[in-house]
Amino acid sequence: MKYKNMNYTKKLNKIRKKSSGMRRKEERAAWLFLLPSITGIFLFVLLPFADVIRRAMFDSMGKNFLGLDNFKLVLKNEAFRLAMGNTIRFLATCLPLLLLVSLIMAFLLYSQKKYAEFFKTSFLLPMAIPVASVVLLWKLLFHKSGLLNILFLTLGKPKIDFMNTRSAFVILIISYIWKNAGYNMILWLTGLNGIDISLYEAAGVDGAGTFSKFRYITLPQLIPTISMLCILSFVNSFKVFREAYLISGDYPHKSIYLLQHLFNNWFTNLDMQKMCAGAVICVVFCLVLILLFRKIDREV
Question: Which CATH number does 77-299 carry?
Answer without folding.
Answer: 1.10.3720.10
